[in-house]
Design goal:
Heat Shock Protein 90, 16% strand, rod-shaped, HATPase_C_sf, ATP-binding, Helix Hairpins
Amino acid sequence: MTILRFLNSLTGRFLMLTFIFVMAAEVMIFVPSVARFREDFLLSRLERAQIASLALLANDSLDMDLEDELLANAGVYNVVLRRNEIRQLVLSSPIPEQIHATYDLREAGAFELIRDAMITLFDPEERVIRVIGDPVKQAGLLIEVTLPTAPLRVAMIDYGVRILALSAAISFFTAFLLFLAVRALLVRPIKRVIGAMTSYTQAPEDARRIIQPSAKVSELREAEVALKAMETELTSALRQKERLAQLGGAVAKVSHDLRNILTTAQLFTDRLEMSQDPGVMRSAPKLVNSIQRAVNLCESTLAFGKAEEPAPALAGVRLAELVGEVIEGERLTIEDFDLSFAEDVPNTMVIRADTEQMYRVLSNLVRNARQAIIATGKPGEISVAAFEDDDEWVLSVTDTGPGLPMKAREHLFQPFHGGARKGGFGLGLAIAAELVRGHGGRLLLERSDTSGTAFAIHLPKGYAQSPSDAKAPDAETAEAAE
């Protein structure tokens, strides 16, 4: 496992690749080197043969034993020397078999020498070949010898083995030096960066853990500079979020206490409304409205300031009963105002939702519609309808009010960006949209103009976990309907 872990590391892979590449380069050198060795071997045989023939030229006759000794020392079977246009067999001995091939070294090119060397190296059969070359010191026109291939092949294999062994040693040594260089120049700086990142993740709010660029390699230094900038920005963002969280907690506490104070003040303003003083009678309604808006703001801030809404507890809900409960609660608030409510919800429709959260969503939308119509002082109507198809349930809340202000439409579901009605704070729709998203659905504004406003709630029927759960809503709906 240790070896595998090392080979999977950057240094291990670099060491292995370096060895492979150096060996590949040595193999590319090996082929022409062996060809060159073969050529030198044959030229040395020609030179030995020429030296052996000089003994015969010095003495016209030699005994057979001395001639055989000269041929054996030269490593050839016979020697032919051409001098003055006369081809002369200078030394000779019996040839054990026919000549297999003839090689002329006088005009052989590089490709031809490499080809002949590879043929000799990979041919295990012992052959007899003829070699032609130029005599040394221009002692004739040409010299020609016949010789066996076995000694040549043995010498070539021995030379090749030594070359490969040397190449392997060079490869290991080069790879080791490169390994040390890479470890010093790359691996250690990279490990330092990794260590700095690990240390930073343990306490990102601690500015002392932000990396300080120190790499000498330009690319690594650029990476360290970029990492430092990212960590600095992230630390600043975390500090800002922490301050905002603390501020939010403080605001929530202040809103809670302020709501209690304003509630007490609201009780006293109720008594002011009974006063017969003309000035008080004119000022009291404005004071009551101002205090009521302040109380609403505190309550909305407290509701929105929670970390997050709890996950909905999905169950079968009879939508007609839920809508009826919401509308009944709104009817109690309108007293004698000419405002009518219409319901178009099938009695058998059962949706999969959290009862309390869906009540809050519908109540929010209906209340906004009621307040918008009452603010005009004109009669109006609020309609709640629902239908379903194979994929989703769709609930719509429509009113005949004046429509949403342009500012509200631009930031409709963003908190504290202007409410859907005058005096609102923009929290109600933001909370409603968040609750619908928790059900996997969407809260959409379908239209808003002088003829009124229409919101639509789309709730999916299918489960998001897996396609196999798609049948579950039908079973649950049927059980709730019973």
